[in-house]
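Re: that chain you flagged

S.,

Sorry for the slow reply, it's been a week of failed gels. I finally had a moment to sit down with the sequence you sent. For the record, here it is as I used it:
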Amino acid sequence: RLYMNWLIHELKPYIDENYRTLPDRLNTIICGSSMGGLMALYGACVYNHVFQRAACLSPSIWVNPGKVLEMVARANIRNDTCIYMDYGALEMFNHVANQESLISTSHMLLTKRVNLALRIVPGGTHCEASWEQQIPIFMDCLGL
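Prediction finished late last night. Pasting the structure tokens below so you have them in one place:
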């Protein structure tokens, strides 16, 4: 919560004031990988009034799947929200809770009427090189 509050109350306003941006929700997207992917999911759910779209690459939802589900369940998510979420096929079993957490989180997002693009990346691993290859795919899924 501290990081996200800093991001939306200090960093984003600074960027919007000093650079040519379209600061409205429809043009504000959050993206991250691993713990950053979890933060992107958190941003899209809890700060949905700020972020319309999110790319969550290999989000670390396994860290506390119960809290993630609770967060999504409580979130007031608008039905125009679009989330891309993926995991590499070769990382799916790195943590015991990975597969079940991904399935239950995806299901909860779908019950919230989120436009969810869920993908298992063939041959994908938990690393920057794998995530970099997903950029054109998630950009297309998010309509960018």
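What I noticed first: Strands lie at 29-33, 53-57, 82-88, 115-121.

Talk soon,
D.
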